[in-house]
Design a protein that fits this description.
With 309 residues, the protein is of the alpha/beta class. It contains eight helices and 16 strands. Strand 14 and strand 15 form a beta hairpin. The chain starts with 20 loop residues before the first strand and ends with a strand. It is an enzyme of class 2 (transferase).
């Protein structure tokens, strides 16, 4: 879990203890979140792993099963948590999240308002960005979904950095108690333009605003409303292209045995005329785009509150 002691930086540089949340890594596309419980076991295709064997090991350790198979025990960083969390709604992924955190100028000590919470993917990264002295106030109209998000923040050790509220922000706006106190506001709502006037009241002078919308029509209406109280209005679409980089072996023919210089591992092959032909296996690194690349996720519209003249 995250170390959120105000006197310390967020860190995972400690040993795993009973009750900790760890990310069990089998391969880049197969990970799961596991809460350590002494006496419990994890069973997968690599064998049986005892939780008791994990206690006391540092995060990042390679641990073995009864069959000699292995997995890695990784710390539940926001990046990894985004990949393993339960999808109660469509979530934001790393490319959009990193862009949001940067463009909203979120730093330690910032106060951020968010609606809606959803699965809590963005909330987790926002919490790390504002730590150790800032705070994230996130709202969702769905009470059960908000409760599940609270449980997740408790598991990841972020409950003292994130407060989850149940409120229909699109219908009622943000609570008046936050008026003029927020450094940034983020909206992920079907009709964000309805909430923009409320968001403007919540922001400090020169505060920043962002809205995530899957459709360009939503962006157009939001931008029209933003012009009243905001400036520097910009919209982005973040597209991420992932490459697979791996080592491959290519077989090549080098001629007769006498012509081989011995620079590569060789195999002899006897031809029909009785001569020997030497073939070598050459290692090379190949990079190519992954077949399952993510396309359009949504549009990110940013704006800055106008300063009073």
């Amino acid at each position: 879990m995250l170390d959120t002691d105000p006197a310390k930086k967020l860190s995972f540089n400690r040993s795993i203890t009973n009750g900790d949340l760890v990310i069990v890594y089998e391969r880049h596309d197969n990970m799961k979140a596991v809460t350590i419980s002494e006496g419990s076991v994890l069973q997968n295709r690599f064998g049986v792993f005892k939780h008791s064997d994990w206690i006391g090991k540092p995060f990042g350790s390679k641990v073995f099963s009864n069959k000699g198979g292995f997995v890695y025990l990784l710390a539940p960083t926001p990046e990894l948590w985004t990949l393993v969390l339960s999808h109660r709604t469509q979530i934001l992924y790393i490319a959009d999240i990193s862009f949001v955190v940067m463009y909203l100028e979120i730093v330690p000590g910032s106060v951020v308002l968010e609606s809606g919470t959803g699965s809590g993917s963005l909330s987790t990264s926002l919490a790390r960005a504002v730590a150790p002295t800032g705070h994230v106030y996130t709202f969702d109209f769905h009470e059960q979904r908000a409760g599940s998000a609270r449980d997740d923040f408790e598991r990841t050790g972020l409950n003292n950095l994130v407060t989850v509220g149940v409120r229909d922000i699109q219908g009622a706006g943000f609570p008046d108690e936050f008026s003029g106190h927020a450094d940034a506001v983020f909206l992920d709502l079907p009709q964000p333009w309805v909430v923009i006037p409320s968001a403007a009241k919540m922001l400090k002078q020169d505060g920043t605003f962002c809205s995530f919308s899957p459709c360009i029509e939503q962006v157009q209406r939001s931008c029209e409303t933003l012009q009243t109280s905001f400036t520097d209005i910009r919209t982005f679409e973040v597209l991420l292209r992932t490459y697979e980089v791996r080592e491959v072996k290519m077989d090549g023919v080098e001629g007769n045995e006498s012509g081989s210089n011995g620079s590569h591992p060789c195999k002899r092959r006897l031809c029909s005329d009785g001569s020997n032909v030497v073939s070598s296996s050459i290692s090379s690194v190949m990079a190519r785009p992954c077949g399952e690349a993510r396309g359009h996720t949504g549009y990110l519209t940013f704006a800055r509150l106008k300063c009073l003249s």
